[in-house]
Structures are given as C-alpha cells and as structure tokens.
Amino acid sequence: MKNTKEYMAEWRANNKDRIKGYTKAYNTKHREAKNARIRERMTQRSINGICKHCNTPRLPHSKNFCEKHYFACVAARLGDGSVEMAEALRKKWHDQKGICPYTNQQMLLGLDSSLDHILPVSKYPELKMDINNLEWITTSLNKAKGNMTKEEFMVMLKQLLIHIFNNG
Ligand SMILES: [Zn+2]
To answer: What's the domain range around 113?
Structure first.
C-alpha cells in the first residue's frame, strides 16, 4: 500500500508537463496582478501629485517626478543612469540657478528646461556624457540650436540680430 507522500511523488513524476503548465499560469496570473497593483499605485500617485518613484511631492511643473527622480530620469535618457550623473546634472542646474545662458531667463524645471550638448553629439559622440559638455537651456532654444555647436549657434544668432537691426 502506497502512502500519500509516495502517491503524490508518483503523480508529480507522471505529470511534469501538467505541473509546468500550472506553474506558468500561476506566475502569469500573479505577475499581471502585481503589475496591476503597480499601475494602480502610479495612478494614485499621479492624482495626488506624488512622484512616480517615491512618496515625495512632484515638482510643480513635472507630470511625473520629484526633483531627485527628474534628474535621475534625464540621466537615464542621456545613457548614464547612475546616481553620480543624476547628482552632477542636479548640481549643474543649481549652479546655473535655473537660468538659461542664452536668454538669461529663469527656466522652470520639468517645464521649459532641457539639457543641451554644447558640442553636439552628432559631431562629438565621445562627449555625450561629459558633464562639462552639458548645460541647461530653454527647450525651444535647444530645438533651434539643433546640431550646431554653441559657437556656431551664437554666430547665427548674431547674424540674425544684425539683419533685424539693419532692416528694422
Ligand atoms: Zn521621486
């Protein structure tokens, strides 16, 4: 006479594929439940003005993040999501006091602030993550600057001004 334990062991040995299927289904089901909980928490945080990644209030102009996670997000997009890079970007922002070096305007973090490569990545890929090649400038200006170096952009702006000045 087999005892229960032996019977169970035999059943498991004969039903390996079936068990694998159950396990997979269980994991899938619970992964979805877990993802749903995370989504729900993010929605709640969004409604309550809380950062997506922590329990800190969001920046006034950021849809998703507190200051810390805003810089972490920018660092990650840059391709170096390290804490050191995020901190270096935060320091740069505060060193600039949030002032755009081109317009002298106060930028609002998460609204019209963007990280510019002084020497563009298209021409100087090796300087992509060099903190000395980065500065915070107004988003619209960053778009206008495009693939120009800061120097090229300044020359263009001066030509534009001279033209406007001479032609009223
Ligand atoms: Zn946060």
So the answer is: 82-166
Is a pLDDT exceeding 80 seen at residue 106? yes
For residues 57-62, give the mean pLDDT.
Answer: 92
Q: Is residue 67 part of a domain?
A: no
User: How far does the centroid of ligand 1 lie from the alpha carbon of residue 66, in Å?
Assistant: 4
What pLDDT was estimated at residue 66? Answer: 95
What separation, in Å, do the N-terminal and C-terminal C-alpha atoms of the chain show? 106
**What is the token pair recorded at 70?**
């805003």
Domain total for the chain? 2
Is residue 155 located within the same domain as residue 90? Answer: yes
Å from CA of 153 to ligand 1 middle: 35
Cα 73 to averaged position of ligand 1 atoms, centre (Å): 10
Residue 43: per-residue pLDDT: 86
Distance between CA 90 and CA 75 in Å, rounded?
Answer: 10
Any domain includes 151: yes
**pTM here?**
0.74
Residue 60 domain-assigned (yes or no): no
C-alpha 72 – ligand 1 centre gap (Å): 9
Please choose, from the candidates 92, 71, 68, the residue with its C-alpha nearest in 3D space to the C-alpha of residue 80. 71
Tell me, in angstroms, the distance from the centre of ligand 1 to residue 46's CA. 12
Q: Are residues 30 and 90 in the same domain?
A: no
With residue 115 as reference, give the H or E element that holds it.
strand 113-117
Residue 29: inside a domain: yes
